[in-house]
Amino acid sequence: MKKFSLLLAVFFTASLLHAQDSLTIRKIYDEALVNGKAYESLHYLCKNIGGRLSGSANAQKAVEWSKKLMESYGFDKVYLQEVMVPHWVRGEKETAFIIDGKTRIPVPIAALGMTVSTPKEGITANVVEVRSLKELETLGESVIKGKIVFFNRPFDQRFIETGHAYGMAGDQRFMGPAAAAKYGAVGVIVRSLTGSTDDYPHTGATLSGPGTQQIPAAAISTNAADKLSNMLRLRKLPLVKFYFKQSCQLLPDVLSYNVIGELTGTENPNKFISVGGHLDSWDLAEGAHDDGTGVMQSAEVLRIFKAIGYRPKNSVRAVFFMNEENGHKGGTKYAELAAQNKEQHIAAIETDEGGFTPRGFSFDGVSKDFIKSINDKYKAILEPYEVDKLTIGGSGTDIEPMKEKLPGVVLIGYRPDSQRYFDIHHTPNDVFENVNKRELELGAAGMAAFIYLIDQHGL
Questions:
Q1: What tens digit of pLDDT does each residue of 67-78 get?
Q2: How far apart are CA 238 and CA 263, in angstroms?
Q3: Is 148 buried (19+), middle (13-18) or exposed (0-12) by CB count in 10 A?
Q4: Are 398 and 327 in contact (CB under 8 A)?
Q5: Beta-strand (E) ranges in 34-102?
Q6: Largest CA-CA distance found in the chain, in angstroms, rounded
Q7: What kind and span of H or E run contains 182?
Q8: Domain Peptidase M28 spans what residues (predicted)?
Q9: 317 to each of 77, 247, 350, 390, how far by Cα in Å?
Q10: Among 314, 380, 304, which Cα is nearest to 22's?
Q11: Residues 306 and 263: beta-carbon distance below 8 Å
Q12: Cα distance between residue 430 and residue 12, in whole Å
């Protein structure tokens, strides 16, 4: 009889907790969807500040405004975290032509981040088209020297999750220019990393190690890439050349900041759950989806908690990281200082895949047993809100340094629907008008709900 009574007590306690969780999550969604502030804040960030490349005046304006925004929400702590960041400047608009005999065909290009300028008169050379770094290596210096290398591997459209296609195609932008320089190339053009066929070149960072020879590198729009590829295939090589001119500069590093807001835990003030995105953006547009939506959603999580009167057991932080796009210095600094301060981090969520319809969360470096346990605990309560896809996967560039510096932290990526993201990623189309208000609010609510569950019941 005593055993039955104990089981009955456990059952009723569990039912009561589930009911309380359901009620709180409903309050979270009601607040986000009826009184949400993320959309109007994003409008200000995009329209009054705009593109926010690390080291720029706009990046500093964004830092100052973000701190005031968090203070206006009444968070327990709001502060800046110093970090030195690169200062790369694009310069005047790039120019490019396909040269077909005596005909010059203008094509859209955008210099890759951290690349160097061409000579003032630009570069004109024959073109060698390759589809991979391996093909470049096979051709070698005898074919590559003195040429412009054209990396033209498209997205693999078979992937349902478009981030996988981006990852598979990305090495030609990240490492292609440095690899081509080793074989004597005078410049590089890279097919934009998108599944769309359009006239918008997609910028993004390229990498070069210390002592690596640097050559000018630019992204070419997918329509232009197809045109150039067809011309190279149909005409004799000497007749088709490429010209481009860009005037980028890499200036000395400058002081910038991560912006951090915190609700201090009532039971465990030195245990932390972080949610964040990156405040910096590329300079071609307003950085709306990449990653204005992410930082505004992160602040919204804490604002929602304040609005519904929820005091977390553990400290919850919203982190606006600086310099994700071309250096990752903000995420590295955050992890270093957390380790120095002996903070215990339970979980960190990054939102950097746009403000589209929420689907769920992915967990970095965990076991299948962990995923089964998470689904057993939380899938049913998240399912009514359609944010219940809990899978093994990546987390995010800004929180990745925490893996080494903060043992025990669980790194989590917020996963919205991916189908439209790489249509606008790193392009002039990344503007406020391409963000849907309700999708943005649903994402903020989904993250707040999941952080509430982690805070209450752990992982």
A1: 999 999 999 999
A2: 65
A3: buried
A4: no
A5: 77-89, 95-100
A6: 97
A7: helix 176-182
A8: 258-448
A9: 9, 40, 12, 22
A10: 380
A11: yes
A12: 50
The reported pLDDT for the residue numbered 382 is: 98
Instruction: Look up tokens 């009561």; give the residue.
Output: 16
| Residue 222 burial class via C-beta count within 10 angstroms: exposed 0-12, middle 13-18, buried 19 and up | buried
H or E stretch covering 188: strand 187-191
Tell whether the model's pLDDT for residue 318 goes beyond 90.
yes
Q: Is the pLDDT of residue 367 over 90?
A: yes
Q: What does the pLDDT read at residue 10?
A: 42
Pairing of strands 314-321, 249-263: antiparallel
Sequence-distant (6+) residues with CB within 8 A of 16 are none
Residue 3 pLDDT > 80: no
**And the tokens for 326?**
């071309």
As given in the structure block, the two tokens for residue 393 are 């996967």
- In angstroms, the CA 408 to CA 102 distance is 63
Phi, psi at residue 215, to the nearest 5°? -130, 155
Residue 63: closest CA among 342, 278, 273: 278
Beta-carbon contacts of 328 under 8 Å, excluding residues fewer than 6 positions away, are 397, 398, 401
User: Residue ranges per domain, the chain?
Assistant: 28-88+252-457, 91-247
Angstrom distance (rounded) from CA 220 to CA 31:
43
Reported as a single tens digit per residue, the pLDDT across 151-184 is 999 999 999 999 999 999 999 999 999 999 999 9
CATH superfamily of 28-88+252-457: Zn peptidases (3.40.630.10)
**Per-residue pLDDT averaged across 307-322, rounded?**
98
Residues 286, 431: contact at Cβ < 8 Å?
Answer: yes
CATH code of domain 91-247: 3.50.30.30
| CA–CA gap between residue 344 and residue 337 (Å, rounded) | 12
The kind and range of the H/E element at 174 are helix 171-174
Contacts of 5 (CB under 8 A, 6+ apart): none
Instruction: Mark residue 286 as left, alpha or beta (left: phi above 0; alpha: psi -120 to 50; beta: remaining).
Output: alpha
Is residue 414 within 8 Å of 291, Cβ to Cβ?
A: no
Q: pTM here?
A: 0.94
Tokens read off for 311: 């005091």
C-alpha–C-alpha distance, residues 187 and 318, integer Å: 41
- How many angstroms separate the CA atoms of 426 and 446, rounded? 25
* Alpha carbon distance 70, 261 (integer Å): 6
Q: Taking a C-beta distance cutoff of 8 angstroms, is the pair 112, 173 a contact?
A: yes
CA 161 to centroid of chain Cα atoms: 15
